[in-house]
Amino acid sequence: MKIIERTEERILTADVFEREAGGTPRNGTGSVTEAQRELPVYHETDVVVVGGGPSGSAAAAAAAAAGARVTLLERYNHLGGLATGGLVIWIDRMTDWAGELVIRGFAEEVLGRLPADAIAGPTVPEWGSQDAERARHWSMRTAAWHGIVTWSPTIDPERLKLASQEMLLERGVRLVYHSWACVPLMENSAAAGVIFESKEGRMAIRAKVVIDATGDGDIFARAGAAYDSDIEQNDAHHCMNTAWLFGGVDMAQWINFRQGNPDGFSAFMAKGRIDCGLFEKPYVSWRDDIALFMGPRQSGYSGLNVDDLSEVEIRSHRAMQSHLDFYRRHAPGFEQAYMLTSAPQIGVRHTRRLVGVDAVLRSRWSEGTPLPDEVAVSPAVSPKFPNISIPYGALVPKELDGLLACGRHISCDRNSHGFMREIPQCWLTGQAAGAAAALAVRAGVAPRALSVAALQAELVRQGVYLRQADADTAAVDTAQAYAMR
Ligand SMILES: Cc1cc2nc3c(=O)[nH]c(=O)nc-3n(C[C@H](O)[C@H](O)[C@H](O)COP(=O)(O)OP(=O)(O)OC[C@H]3O[C@@H](n4cnc5c(N)ncnc54)[C@H](O)[C@@H]3O)c2cc1C
Hints:
Blueprint: E1 2-4, E2 14-18, E3 41-50, H1 54-65, E4 70-73, H2 106-112, E5 119-120, H3 132-139, E6 144-145, E7 148-149, E8 154-155, H4 157-170, E9 174-176, E10 180-187, E11 190-198, E12 201-212, H5 218-222, E13 227-228, E14 240-241, E15 244-247, H6 251-260, H7 262-276, E16 283-284, E17 290-293, E18 297-299, H8 306-330, E19 338-342, E20 347-348, E21 353-354, E22 374-378, E23 388-391, E24 403-405, H9 414-420, H10 423-443, H11 452-461, H12 478-481
Parallel strand pairs: 2-18, 3-4, 3-12, 4-9, 12-24
Antiparallel strand pairs: 1-2, 5-8, 6-7, 10-11, 11-12, 13-21, 14-20, 15-17, 15-19, 16-17, 22-23
Helix pairs in contact: 1-4, 1-10, 7-8, 10-11
The chain binds flavin-adenine dinucleotide.
């Protein structure tokens, strides 16, 4: 086990558990030939969004708001991806270190639709506060870091599913659940739709622009686009686990113990690591009688390997059992705990990252100036850095037309992935990809040839926070800057 400490470049302190030997080897040999077949075209649309996680939901909403006909395919039965089905119900920081809300647009609207009892976090006047008492309070409730109160609430996943779904339906998006996209439809080397599997069998959707919001780059990888898969060892972003919730707890009592008895808490953690092997501490949820476990974080597994996915599920479900036994016996506030639910979506933080015409880069973190093709602004990982400019080029494949990427597989280096994969940033890049796809369809151009000025104007119209680049760098000739070389 390795303990990753919080630094100026990483927000979390986390235990990481390395892969163990085990599992049953495959006994398959050789290959089989699948017969060629004609597929029915299920639907024709302007924009098809593959994946209904935070990025896909925002992309579909933004494309529809910009006037496109939009179809969204999702393999499960709900929207929200890991933020709902993965029980990642802690929405990371949406304010910058001065307390300004910089994650806006779709993100602000969808959270604003949650009923008051479905979202927990500091009030607006507290955002950015450095008051020691308030920071101490919120530090145990997912909303204070480096002594600064942040807007990083916890939410009821069912309410977020519903709010996302209704926002998309209001905008006229066609939602297709229970449908797993397998391969892109290609025409003249460009993506022109997707082929998907469902209970009806295999069908195709034709689209003018495909948005890959699968989180794993399933579609761009199968279309032949280049991607990176290197990892930052000193971050948790290479870990997998299935999250879960315990009900029947008293989180106020737990927090009193954790804050009031640091030695007792250290002894508790040490004993837990020995007794349970894989061990994790709880986070608060949107209610004080429900505890959230987003670990134990397991490294050395691949979210693209079905045996690894199965193994992490098995280990996580066993860990849920051992944690219940241990916490009931030793954790103040957990005496009456019960297994409320484990996540229907396995927690995969990282698999592939697109190689785009540009990228979010660690080398630019200190710059603080808007890039000329800025389509989103992210808070930095710590107050040491200014807000970070997200370029449109991070969504555009270097060498594939007809497709844009958004969410946790956008083009970035491995350090920047640590925050670009967070839910608020996925909402932002999703909104940018959706608006861009719609404008490209309207203009009849490839996404790489889109006018960035027009895209920025549309995003501002949709409530996204953007800044003005310096006059001498403001104009981006995308046809020139993003051309395939
Ligand atoms: C354990 C864990 C803890 C985390 N902690 C935090 C945190 O505290 N705060 C925070 O903000 N972020 C956190 N994150 C990161 C964040 O949850 C994800 O990176 C984010 O949800 C990614 O959004 P996305 O839209 O890119 O992808 P996802 O949320 O993965 O959504 C992708 C969607 O696409 C669907 N899909 C995938 N492939 C296909 C296909 N082929 N066909 C059809 N549908 C498909 C999936 O079913 C899913 O609904 C955490 C992640 C994990 C795993």
